Amino acid sequence: MNLLNTLVDKGLRRESPTREEALAVLATSDDDLLDVVAAAGKVRRHWFGRRVKLNYLVNLKSGLCPEDCSYCSQRLGSKADILKYTWLKPDQASEAAAAGLAGGAKRVCLVASGRGPTDRDVDRVSDTIKAIKEQNEGVEVCACLGLLSDGQAERLREAGADAYNHNLNTSEATYGGITTTHTYADRVDTVHKAHAAGLSACSGLIAGMGESDEDLVDVVFSLRELDPDSVPVNFLIPFEGTPLAKEWNLTPQRCLRILAMVRFVCPDVEVRIAGGREVHLRTMQPLALHLANSIFLGDYLTSEGQAGKADLEMIADAGFEVEGADQVTLPEHRSAAGGACGSHDGAGCGSHEGSGCGSHEEPGCGSHQGGGVCGSAEAPAAEAPAPESAPVPEPAAGNEPRTDLVAVRRRGAGTDLAPNA
Predict the structure, then answer these.
(1) Burial of 294 (0-12, 13-18, 19+ CB in 10 A)
(2) Active site residues
(3) N or C, which end of the chain has less CB nearby within 10 Å?
């Protein structure tokens, strides 16, 4: 396909595809799916080899959030039967983080539900960051606490945080239909605050909320403009008890096309498969490793994930390797760019990149970044053999609700049971 050859060439040069080209990727047929994966895989391997970065989530405070994000099991008014608890103590959080690090994770993502942290909350998280770093040499820590006020990002950075996650989640045009208690602009502002403080930015999206292909392309191009180091791609987990419980719009094939489109638009950025991969990719998860270079290990914020041991076996069986603590995630041109994670010894991540909650089960968690582009300068516009739009597929065979795969987390942080790592 001429389209795929063009996209590979652009990805290797860090050039942006056109919107029409991005839409064309989403509109490809299942017959062409392996060709799409192979093409995007060339771009992924060029910038990241066969390394897979492992990240581990620690839910510091679960449930009881005042925000009304429709996708979130922790939202205001949620009837989802999730764990609810207040702030973990620093030693509890550090113990939870240690399980993920022992399983091969190189980054710990500290997440808390809520609109945003108070100054006292920032103190709590700062103490937790210090405790984790004192006990685990070389670990990266990302915070995901919601909307930031002036000066809070700087305080997190001083405490040792390497990154901040705040997802855009969906396009600006549709954001008001998903959340009403804060705005798309609020999320962008928090990204800018994190970036200005010298934190590595992590910001991504949620697919499967009923959005159009145009919405998906819009949010990914917006992320490219924000220039995050890491882009988590979440697939909606339709929790019973939330407004989007009936939204089962994804097939494994569509998930792969979405990941491929993100890789082409952000060729040299850490693309992470985040929440929902087990629910929607299912047995196709190994193919997704040819598109993304990062995953979460074990469980998510309020839902259970694949067993950590199974994650490691999947990576090895697919011919990939777990990225080591001594390896730099980002390509040299990004890691040497000052603000990027992995660009410096001592301060900052020190080695690879990516982060953030990324798991979409958390409202405040979200966007982060400002300036630049995922890849580099915009490429000249090119003609693409793309249709004007591609509608979201109707539920069909293989696309029916898989509520059996949605398991509420009952172990790990906030419980007396051992975590899944």
Answers:
(1) buried
(2) 65, 69, 72, 109, 142, 202, 272
(3) N
